[in-house]
């Protein structure tokens, strides 16, 4: 009986480590931004947890115009700890733009959006440069 328990313990440990490795790979995966079925030259990383937000965004000196972030499962956004303005795009479950914030200042909070599912954080003036409007479709594609 002790041998069977030991074998189960070892196999569960190996399976758990594979899940952790897969999760780490998914965290660092980079996608490309697609606006109205046109692929743009902006790389997007997914952010799901506060720890990922802290590591990727907080206290960052400059935001690169070729890099953006997608927050999944949020109803609003706060820019606490940011050092410069950012552009925010809030989308619903069909990935349609329901609200945009251009040059969103540091240490501020957006209003609560019940329909929101995804928030894209881009460098400032990106909304104007890409000409993003309400009801545009914004998705990501594999790189």
Structure description:
It contains three helices and seven strands. By secondary structure, it is α+β, with helices and mostly antiparallel strands. The protein has a single domain (30-142), classed as Protein of unknown function DUF192 (Jelly Rolls, Sandwich). It has a seven-stranded mixed sheet with strand order 5-4-6-3-2-1-7. A hairpin with a 2-residue loop joins strand 1 and strand 2 (38-47). The N and C termini lie far apart (49 Å).
List the helices and strands and how they pair.
Layout: H1 2-27, E1 30-35, E2 38-47, H2 50-56, E3 67-72, E4 86-91, E5 97-104, E6 118-123, H3 126-130, E7 138-142
Parallel strand pairs: 2-3
Antiparallel strand pairs: 1-2, 1-7, 3-6, 4-5, 4-6
What are the main properties of this structure?
3 helices; 7 strands; Jelly Rolls; alpha+beta; 143 residues; seven-stranded mixed beta sheet; single chain
């Amino acid at each position: 009986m002790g041998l069977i328990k030991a074998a189960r313990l070892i196999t569960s440990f190996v399976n758990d480590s594979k899940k952790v490795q897969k999760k780490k790979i998914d965290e660092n995966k980079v996608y490309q931004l697609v606006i109205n079925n046109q692929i743009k030259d902006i790389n997007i990383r997914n952010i799901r947890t506060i720890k990922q937000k802290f590591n990727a965004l907080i206290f960052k000196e400059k935001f690169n115009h070729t890099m953006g972030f997608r927050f999944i499962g949020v109803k609003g956004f706060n820019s606490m700890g940011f050092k410069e303005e950012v552009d925010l795009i809030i989308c619903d479950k069909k990935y349609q733009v329901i609200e945009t914030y251009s040059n969103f200042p540091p240490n501020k909070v957006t209003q609560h959006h019940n329909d929101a599912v995804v928030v894209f954080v881009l460098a400032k003036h990106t909304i104007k440069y890409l000409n993003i409007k309400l009801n545009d479709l914004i998705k990501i594609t594999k790189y």
